[in-house]
Design a protein that fits this description.
- By secondary structure, the chain is an alpha/beta fold.
- The chain contains nine helices and nine strands.
- Strand 5, helix 5 and strand 6 form a beta-alpha-beta unit.
- The structure holds NADP nicotinamide-adenine-dinucleotide phosphate (NAP).
């Protein structure tokens, strides 16, 4: 039986000011946990802190900036030993291949992969101090199911999430000996400010609150892989298991059909 979230835990969440991060923060707060919240904008983090001044610490920072991260490092343990880190901050920029720009690829990779990796500069030492006291320590990385199938326009976003999932699974192998759990979250479409910009139909769209419930329940049940909604992720898995020649034909047809808009789960 999982011991995660059984007792009030100290949790750092990035990208906590909106969408999945905000809903997860609010859900964890309802359950009595103590939080450290990060994002670039301070105001949305302050709004969550207003719910419980003594159980929420606001630590604004850009996750791609090592100096800013270093400056908030002491705050990660402001409520005591750090039990869990949820690295959720991310972006999604689509590529218009007719006006190809490698900046789109770089921007996705910089925030989603490099930014997440930089968070570990300050999170890992804190999680190790917790483990040294014999307490459970969990690292949660919010990736995506987008990269399981090659969607048009998602060259940068999909590549960043494929890299992020590999990064997380490789870390899981290396950190197993230290007893630090690594959890990978792979959502389908979730209604958030990120997807509100999409001008195409998003199948099996769930609310941010629904996503947060699935994440928190999965964590409490000791899961290491949390993918939802099932109907969507299983469809993607099945499509991804087809022979490459069929996948290529399907994804090229989808890209042609949608011309400029493509159903890409962020
Ligand atoms: N929505 C979906 O359908 C979906 C599907 C699969 C995966 N995901 C993933 O879920 C995560 C959350 O996305 P969301 O949909 O909830 O989007 P969102 O509402 O835009 O949340 C992203 C958060 O990340 C923060 N952020 C972005 N860049 C940052 C940076 N450089 N430093 C610090 N914080 C930064 C933003 O706050 P500031 O602007 O204040 O920094 C924002 O609060 C992302 O990793 C996304 O890829 C989303």
């Amino acid at each position: 039986m999982s011991k995660r979230l059984e007792t009030p835990s100290n949790i750092w969440i990035t990208g906590a000011g909106s969408g999945i991060g905000e809903a997860t923060a609010r859900s964890l707060l309802d359950l009595g946990h103590r939080l450290v919240l990060t994002g670039r904008r301070r105001e949305p983090l302050d709004a969550i802190q207003a719910i419980s001044q003594d159980r929420v610490t606001v630590a604004p920072a850009d996750i791609t900036d090592q100096l800013q991260l270093r400056s908030i490092a002491p705050q990660l343990e402001s409520h005591g030993d750090l039990n869990m880190v949820i690295l959720n901050a991310g972006t999604c920029e689509y590529l218009d291949v007719r006006h190809y720009s490698s900046d789109v690829i770089a921007n996705n990779l910089q925030i989603n992969v490099v930014g997440t990796a930089r968070c570990l500069d300050i999170a890992l030492p804190a999680l190790r101090r917790t483990r040294a006291k014999g307490q459970p320590a969990t690292l949660v990385i919010v990736s995506s199911s987008a990269w399981w199938f090659p969607f048009g326009r998602a060259e940068g976003y999909g590549a960043s999430k494929a890299a992020l999932s590999y990064f997380a699974h490789s870390l899981r192998a290396d950190l197993a000996a230290e007893g630090i759990d690594v959890v990978v979250v792979s959502p389908g479409f979730v209604k958030t400010p990120l997807t509100d910009r999409n001008d195409f139909p998003m199948p099996f769209l769930v609310t941010a609150e629904d996503a947060a419930n699935r994440i928190v329940n999965g964590l409490a049940h000791g899961r290491r892989e949390i993918a939802f909604p099932k109907r969507f992720t299983w469809t993607l898995r099945l499509l991804g298991a087809l022979p490459r020649s069929i996948i290529d034909r399907m994804s090229a047809a989808m890209a042609r059909q949608s011309d400029h808009s493509q159903d890409v789960p962020k």
